[in-house]
Amino acid sequence: FSKLTTGLSKSSSKLGASLTGAFNKRKLDDDALEELEDLLITSDMGARVAAKITSNLAKTRFDKDVTDQEIKEALAEEIEAIMAPREQVVDFSDGPTPRVVLFVGVNGSGKTTTIGKIASKLKEQGAKAVLVAGDTFRAAAIEQLTVWGERAGIPVMSKPTGADAAGLVYEAIEKAKADNLDLVLVDTAGRLQNKAELMSELAKIVRVARKLDPEAPHDVILVLDATVGQNALSQVEAFRHTAEVSGIVMTKLDGTAKGGVLVAIAEAHDLPIHFVGVGEKAEDLQPFSAAAFAKALVG
Ligand code: GDP
Q1: Hey, whose CA ends up nearest to atom 21 of ligand 1?
Q2: Concatenated DSSP letters of 18-72
Q3: Is ligand 1 within 6 A of the CB of residue 254?
Q4: Residue of 263, 258, 281 lying closest to 273 (CA atoms)
Q5: Does 6 contact ligand 1 (Cβ within 6 A)?
Q6: Residues in domain SRP54-type proteins GTP-binding (predicted)?
Q7: Burial class for 109, CB neighbours closer than 10 Å (0-12, 13-18, 19+)
Q8: Span from the CA of 294 to the centroid of ligand 1 (angstroms)
Q9: Is the pTM of this model over 0.90?
Q10: Ligand 1: does its nearest atom lie under 6 Å from the Cβ of 286?
Q11: Would you say 134 is a known binding-site residue?
Protein backbone atom coordinates (compact mmCIF):
# COMPACT_ATOMS: atom_id res chain seq x y z
CA PHE A 1 0.00 0.00 0.00
CA SER A 2 2.98 2.29 -0.29
CA LYS A 3 1.54 4.31 -3.19
CA LEU A 4 -1.49 5.12 -1.09
CA THR A 5 0.66 6.16 1.86
CA THR A 6 2.92 8.25 -0.34
CA GLY A 7 -0.08 9.84 -2.01
CA LEU A 8 -2.07 10.56 1.11
CA SER A 9 0.39 11.55 3.77
CA LYS A 10 3.84 12.37 2.51
CA SER A 11 3.64 15.85 1.06
CA SER A 12 3.70 18.79 3.45
CA SER A 13 0.12 19.81 2.70
CA LYS A 14 -1.26 16.45 3.82
CA LEU A 15 -2.84 15.45 7.11
CA GLY A 16 -0.11 12.98 8.07
CA ALA A 17 2.63 15.55 7.61
CA SER A 18 0.66 18.22 9.50
CA LEU A 19 0.08 15.89 12.43
CA THR A 20 3.75 15.07 12.79
CA GLY A 21 5.20 17.25 15.51
CA ALA A 22 1.90 18.99 16.23
CA PHE A 23 0.82 17.18 19.38
CA ASN A 24 3.97 15.83 20.90
CA LYS A 25 3.98 15.99 24.71
CA ARG A 26 1.02 18.29 24.64
CA LYS A 27 -2.04 18.50 26.78
CA LEU A 28 -5.17 17.74 24.77
CA ASP A 29 -6.95 20.91 25.91
CA ASP A 30 -9.48 23.01 24.02
CA ASP A 31 -6.77 24.73 21.97
CA ALA A 32 -5.23 21.44 20.91
CA LEU A 33 -8.63 19.98 20.05
CA GLU A 34 -9.50 23.00 17.97
CA GLU A 35 -6.20 22.73 16.12
CA LEU A 36 -6.85 19.05 15.48
CA GLU A 37 -10.36 19.74 14.21
CA ASP A 38 -8.97 22.38 11.81
CA LEU A 39 -6.40 19.91 10.47
CA LEU A 40 -9.14 17.37 9.82
CA ILE A 41 -11.25 19.97 8.00
CA THR A 42 -8.21 20.98 5.93
CA SER A 43 -7.85 17.34 4.86
CA ASP A 44 -11.29 17.59 3.14
CA MET A 45 -13.16 15.62 5.79
CA GLY A 46 -15.76 18.33 6.23
CA ALA A 47 -16.81 20.14 9.40
CA ARG A 48 -19.30 17.57 10.68
CA VAL A 49 -17.02 14.54 10.50
CA ALA A 50 -14.09 16.55 11.86
CA ALA A 51 -16.18 17.61 14.87
CA LYS A 52 -17.41 14.08 15.44
CA ILE A 53 -13.93 12.56 15.41
CA THR A 54 -12.49 15.30 17.60
CA SER A 55 -15.21 14.97 20.22
CA ASN A 56 -14.76 11.18 20.28
CA LEU A 57 -11.06 11.67 20.97
CA ALA A 58 -11.84 14.17 23.73
CA LYS A 59 -14.13 11.70 25.52
CA THR A 60 -11.24 9.67 26.87
CA ARG A 61 -8.31 12.06 26.51
CA PHE A 62 -9.47 15.57 27.36
CA ASP A 63 -6.79 17.50 29.28
CA LYS A 64 -4.47 14.50 29.24
CA ASP A 65 -0.89 14.55 28.01
CA VAL A 66 -0.63 12.98 24.56
CA THR A 67 1.97 12.23 21.92
CA ASP A 68 1.86 12.46 18.12
CA GLN A 69 1.88 8.72 17.86
CA GLU A 70 -1.03 8.37 20.25
CA ILE A 71 -3.10 10.98 18.38
CA LYS A 72 -2.34 9.35 15.04
CA GLU A 73 -3.31 5.92 16.32
CA ALA A 74 -6.51 7.22 17.91
CA LEU A 75 -7.42 9.09 14.73
CA ALA A 76 -6.75 6.03 12.59
CA GLU A 77 -9.04 4.02 14.84
CA GLU A 78 -11.85 6.58 14.55
CA ILE A 79 -11.48 6.82 10.77
CA GLU A 80 -11.35 3.06 10.41
CA ALA A 81 -14.52 2.72 12.50
CA ILE A 82 -16.36 5.11 10.15
CA MET A 83 -15.08 3.42 6.99
CA ALA A 84 -15.07 -0.27 7.90
CA PRO A 85 -18.78 -0.79 7.10
CA ARG A 86 -18.08 0.44 3.55
CA GLU A 87 -15.30 -2.03 2.87
CA GLN A 88 -16.64 -4.42 0.30
CA VAL A 89 -14.29 -5.93 -2.20
CA VAL A 90 -16.18 -6.94 -5.28
CA ASP A 91 -15.37 -9.86 -7.54
CA PHE A 92 -16.84 -8.92 -10.88
CA SER A 93 -15.97 -12.31 -12.33
CA ASP A 94 -18.54 -13.85 -10.03
CA GLY A 95 -22.33 -13.69 -10.28
CA PRO A 96 -24.78 -13.58 -13.17
CA THR A 97 -23.63 -14.15 -16.75
CA PRO A 98 -23.20 -11.78 -18.33
CA ARG A 99 -22.77 -9.40 -15.42
CA VAL A 100 -23.50 -5.91 -16.70
CA VAL A 101 -21.51 -3.19 -14.95
CA LEU A 102 -22.11 0.50 -15.64
CA PHE A 103 -19.46 3.06 -14.77
CA VAL A 104 -20.78 6.55 -14.09
CA GLY A 105 -19.14 9.79 -12.98
CA VAL A 106 -18.23 13.23 -14.28
CA ASN A 107 -15.84 13.60 -17.21
CA GLY A 108 -12.24 13.26 -16.14
CA SER A 109 -13.01 11.39 -12.92
CA GLY A 110 -11.20 8.29 -14.16
CA LYS A 111 -13.99 6.05 -15.49
CA THR A 112 -12.21 4.86 -18.61
CA THR A 113 -8.95 4.29 -16.77
CA THR A 114 -10.72 2.37 -13.99
CA ILE A 115 -12.53 0.16 -16.52
CA GLY A 116 -9.17 -0.51 -18.18
CA LYS A 117 -7.57 -1.45 -14.87
CA ILE A 118 -10.47 -3.72 -13.84
CA ALA A 119 -10.58 -5.33 -17.29
CA SER A 120 -6.84 -6.09 -17.16
CA LYS A 121 -7.26 -7.75 -13.77
CA LEU A 122 -10.25 -9.78 -14.92
CA LYS A 123 -8.40 -10.91 -18.02
CA GLU A 124 -5.58 -12.21 -15.80
CA GLN A 125 -8.20 -14.13 -13.82
CA GLY A 126 -9.50 -15.68 -17.01
CA ALA A 127 -12.83 -13.87 -17.18
CA LYS A 128 -14.25 -13.13 -20.61
CA ALA A 129 -15.38 -9.54 -20.96
CA VAL A 130 -16.40 -6.95 -23.51
CA LEU A 131 -15.78 -3.23 -23.01
CA VAL A 132 -18.44 -0.85 -24.23
CA ALA A 133 -17.55 2.71 -25.23
CA GLY A 134 -20.83 4.15 -24.03
CA ASP A 135 -19.47 7.69 -23.81
CA THR A 136 -20.40 8.29 -27.41
CA PHE A 137 -20.04 12.05 -27.03
CA ARG A 138 -16.26 12.20 -26.87
CA ALA A 139 -13.99 10.72 -29.51
CA ALA A 140 -11.13 10.74 -26.98
CA ALA A 141 -13.07 8.55 -24.56
CA ILE A 142 -13.78 5.99 -27.30
CA GLU A 143 -10.13 5.97 -28.37
CA GLN A 144 -8.85 5.66 -24.82
CA LEU A 145 -11.07 2.67 -24.05
CA THR A 146 -9.93 1.07 -27.31
CA VAL A 147 -6.30 1.47 -26.25
CA TRP A 148 -6.99 -0.18 -22.88
CA GLY A 149 -8.87 -3.01 -24.60
CA GLU A 150 -6.06 -3.63 -27.07
CA ARG A 151 -3.49 -3.61 -24.30
CA ALA A 152 -5.45 -6.13 -22.24
CA GLY A 153 -6.57 -8.22 -25.22
CA ILE A 154 -10.26 -7.57 -24.55
CA PRO A 155 -12.74 -6.69 -27.31
CA VAL A 156 -14.15 -3.16 -27.30
CA MET A 157 -17.51 -2.30 -28.83
CA SER A 158 -17.91 1.27 -30.03
CA LYS A 159 -19.79 3.43 -32.48
CA PRO A 160 -18.91 6.72 -34.11
CA THR A 161 -19.33 9.82 -31.92
CA GLY A 162 -22.90 10.93 -31.59
CA ALA A 163 -24.33 7.40 -31.88
CA ASP A 164 -26.98 6.17 -29.46
CA ALA A 165 -25.29 4.78 -26.34
CA ALA A 166 -28.29 2.71 -25.25
CA GLY A 167 -28.39 0.96 -28.62
CA LEU A 168 -24.71 0.13 -28.29
CA VAL A 169 -25.24 -1.29 -24.80
CA TYR A 170 -28.12 -3.43 -26.11
CA GLU A 171 -25.93 -4.86 -28.87
CA ALA A 172 -23.13 -5.52 -26.38
CA ILE A 173 -25.38 -7.48 -24.01
CA GLU A 174 -26.79 -9.43 -26.95
CA LYS A 175 -23.29 -10.29 -28.10
CA ALA A 176 -22.21 -11.22 -24.57
CA LYS A 177 -25.15 -13.62 -24.32
CA ALA A 178 -24.45 -15.15 -27.72
CA ASP A 179 -20.72 -15.53 -27.02
CA ASN A 180 -21.16 -16.65 -23.41
CA LEU A 181 -19.14 -13.76 -22.03
CA ASP A 182 -18.91 -13.18 -18.28
CA LEU A 183 -18.92 -9.42 -18.24
CA VAL A 184 -20.11 -6.30 -20.02
CA LEU A 185 -18.24 -3.25 -18.72
CA VAL A 186 -19.89 -0.04 -19.85
CA ASP A 187 -18.28 3.40 -19.96
CA THR A 188 -20.84 6.24 -19.90
CA ALA A 189 -20.90 9.95 -20.60
CA GLY A 190 -20.45 12.21 -17.60
CA ARG A 191 -21.79 15.61 -18.48
CA LEU A 192 -23.05 16.68 -15.10
CA GLN A 193 -23.46 20.26 -16.33
CA ASN A 194 -26.56 19.00 -18.11
CA LYS A 195 -28.20 16.93 -15.41
CA ALA A 196 -31.53 16.34 -17.14
CA GLU A 197 -29.83 14.99 -20.26
CA LEU A 198 -27.46 12.87 -18.26
CA MET A 199 -30.32 11.43 -16.27
CA SER A 200 -32.38 10.55 -19.31
CA GLU A 201 -29.33 9.06 -21.02
CA LEU A 202 -28.53 6.78 -18.06
CA ALA A 203 -32.20 5.89 -17.62
CA LYS A 204 -32.40 4.93 -21.28
CA ILE A 205 -29.34 2.67 -21.02
CA VAL A 206 -30.89 0.95 -18.00
CA ARG A 207 -34.28 0.58 -19.68
CA VAL A 208 -32.80 -0.91 -22.82
CA ALA A 209 -30.46 -3.25 -20.89
CA ARG A 210 -33.46 -4.57 -18.93
CA LYS A 211 -35.12 -5.69 -22.13
CA LEU A 212 -32.43 -8.37 -22.34
CA ASP A 213 -31.96 -8.96 -18.62
CA PRO A 214 -34.50 -7.64 -16.08
CA GLU A 215 -31.76 -7.58 -13.42
CA ALA A 216 -29.33 -5.46 -15.46
CA PRO A 217 -27.32 -3.43 -14.74
CA HIS A 218 -26.00 -5.59 -11.91
CA ASP A 219 -23.64 -2.88 -10.73
CA VAL A 220 -23.57 0.89 -11.14
CA ILE A 221 -20.12 2.03 -10.08
CA LEU A 222 -19.63 5.72 -9.37
CA VAL A 223 -16.08 6.84 -10.12
CA LEU A 224 -14.92 9.88 -8.13
CA ASP A 225 -11.77 11.98 -8.50
CA ALA A 226 -10.26 12.59 -5.06
CA THR A 227 -8.54 15.79 -6.20
CA VAL A 228 -11.86 17.66 -6.37
CA GLY A 229 -12.03 17.53 -2.57
CA GLN A 230 -15.38 18.14 -0.91
CA ASN A 231 -17.01 18.42 -4.37
CA ALA A 232 -16.86 14.63 -4.53
CA LEU A 233 -19.51 14.58 -1.82
CA SER A 234 -21.96 16.61 -3.92
CA GLN A 235 -21.20 14.36 -6.91
CA VAL A 236 -22.29 11.35 -4.85
CA GLU A 237 -25.54 13.12 -4.06
CA ALA A 238 -26.10 14.17 -7.68
CA PHE A 239 -25.42 10.71 -9.10
CA ARG A 240 -27.54 8.95 -6.51
CA HIS A 241 -30.37 11.10 -7.85
CA THR A 242 -29.71 10.13 -11.45
CA ALA A 243 -28.81 6.44 -11.12
CA GLU A 244 -29.03 3.54 -8.69
CA VAL A 245 -25.40 3.75 -7.65
CA SER A 246 -24.28 0.46 -6.10
CA GLY A 247 -20.68 1.22 -5.23
CA ILE A 248 -17.81 3.68 -5.37
CA VAL A 249 -14.29 3.83 -6.75
CA MET A 250 -12.15 6.81 -5.75
CA THR A 251 -9.27 7.66 -8.09
CA LYS A 252 -6.13 9.84 -7.98
CA LEU A 253 -5.27 9.21 -4.36
CA ASP A 254 -1.61 9.11 -5.46
CA GLY A 255 -1.45 12.80 -6.32
CA THR A 256 -2.39 16.10 -4.79
CA ALA A 257 -5.60 14.83 -3.20
CA LYS A 258 -5.88 15.14 0.55
CA GLY A 259 -8.19 12.16 0.68
CA GLY A 260 -10.34 13.13 3.67
CA VAL A 261 -13.43 13.43 1.49
CA LEU A 262 -13.65 9.64 1.28
CA VAL A 263 -14.14 9.57 5.05
CA ALA A 264 -16.95 12.12 4.69
CA ILE A 265 -18.57 10.04 1.94
CA ALA A 266 -18.26 6.85 4.00
CA GLU A 267 -19.90 8.60 6.94
CA ALA A 268 -22.76 10.11 4.94
CA HIS A 269 -23.55 7.37 2.43
CA ASP A 270 -24.36 3.74 2.87
CA LEU A 271 -22.46 2.76 -0.27
CA PRO A 272 -19.69 0.18 -0.55
CA ILE A 273 -16.30 1.50 -1.57
CA HIS A 274 -14.82 -1.09 -3.90
CA PHE A 275 -11.46 0.23 -5.06
CA VAL A 276 -9.06 3.14 -4.81
CA GLY A 277 -6.96 4.36 -7.75
CA VAL A 278 -3.34 5.23 -7.05
CA GLY A 279 -1.90 5.83 -10.50
CA GLU A 280 -2.45 5.56 -14.23
CA LYS A 281 -1.19 2.01 -14.81
CA ALA A 282 -3.16 -1.23 -14.83
CA GLU A 283 -1.74 -2.32 -11.48
CA ASP A 284 -2.64 0.98 -9.79
CA LEU A 285 -6.04 -0.09 -8.53
CA GLN A 286 -6.29 -1.43 -5.00
CA PRO A 287 -9.20 -3.10 -3.25
CA PHE A 288 -10.40 -0.63 -0.63
CA SER A 289 -9.28 -1.40 2.90
CA ALA A 290 -10.57 0.80 5.72
CA ALA A 291 -7.58 0.01 7.93
CA ALA A 292 -5.00 0.68 5.21
CA PHE A 293 -6.75 3.88 4.14
CA ALA A 294 -7.03 5.22 7.69
CA LYS A 295 -3.38 4.44 8.35
CA ALA A 296 -2.24 6.06 5.11
CA LEU A 297 -4.31 9.16 5.79
CA VAL A 298 -2.83 9.87 9.23
CA GLY A 299 0.68 8.90 8.13
P1 GDP B 1 -13.08 9.69 -17.59
O2 GDP B 1 -13.33 10.94 -18.37
O3 GDP B 1 -13.94 9.62 -16.35
O4 GDP B 1 -13.17 8.45 -18.39
O5 GDP B 1 -11.58 9.80 -17.02
P6 GDP B 1 -10.25 9.15 -17.58
O7 GDP B 1 -10.24 7.69 -17.29
O8 GDP B 1 -10.04 9.59 -18.96
O9 GDP B 1 -9.17 9.81 -16.61
C10 GDP B 1 -8.84 11.18 -16.64
C11 GDP B 1 -7.35 11.34 -16.34
O12 GDP B 1 -7.07 10.92 -15.01
C13 GDP B 1 -6.46 10.51 -17.25
O14 GDP B 1 -5.32 11.26 -17.60
C15 GDP B 1 -6.05 9.33 -16.36
O16 GDP B 1 -4.80 8.79 -16.72
C17 GDP B 1 -6.02 9.98 -14.99
N18 GDP B 1 -6.25 9.02 -13.91
C19 GDP B 1 -7.28 8.15 -13.75
N20 GDP B 1 -7.16 7.47 -12.58
C21 GDP B 1 -6.03 7.92 -11.97
C22 GDP B 1 -5.37 7.61 -10.72
O23 GDP B 1 -5.80 6.79 -9.90
N24 GDP B 1 -4.23 8.31 -10.47
C25 GDP B 1 -3.72 9.25 -11.33
N26 GDP B 1 -2.61 9.89 -10.97
N27 GDP B 1 -4.32 9.55 -12.48
C28 GDP B 1 -5.46 8.90 -12.82
Answers
A1: 252
A2: HHTTTSTTEE--HHHHHHHHHHHHHTT--HHHHHHHHHHHHHHHTT-EE-HHHHH
A3: yes
A4: 263
A5: no
A6: 272-285
A7: buried
A8: 23
A9: yes
A10: no
A11: no
Helix (H, G, I), strand (E, B) or coil at 102: strand
One digit per residue, the tens of pLDDT, for the chain of length 299 reads 589 998 998 888 899 999 999 998 899 999 999 999 999 999 999 999 999 999 999 999 999 999 999 999 999 999 999 999 999 989 998 889 999 999 999 999 999 999 999 999 999 999 999 999 999 988 999 999 999 999 999 999 999 998 999 999 999 999 999 999 999 999 999 876 677 888 888 999 999 999 999 999 999 999 999 999 999 999 999 999 889 999 999 999 998 899 999 999 999 999 999 999 999 999 999 999 999 999 999 99
CA 112 to ligand 1 center in whole angstroms:
7
85 Cα distance to chain centroid: 15
Decide: helix, strand or coil at residue 151: helix
Tell me, what's the ipTM?
0.99
Residue of 185, 198, 251 best suited for mutating to test ligand 1, as the one with most atoms within 8 Å of CB: 251
C-alpha span between 90 and 94 (Å, rounded): 9
What single-letter amino acid sits at 56?
Answer: N
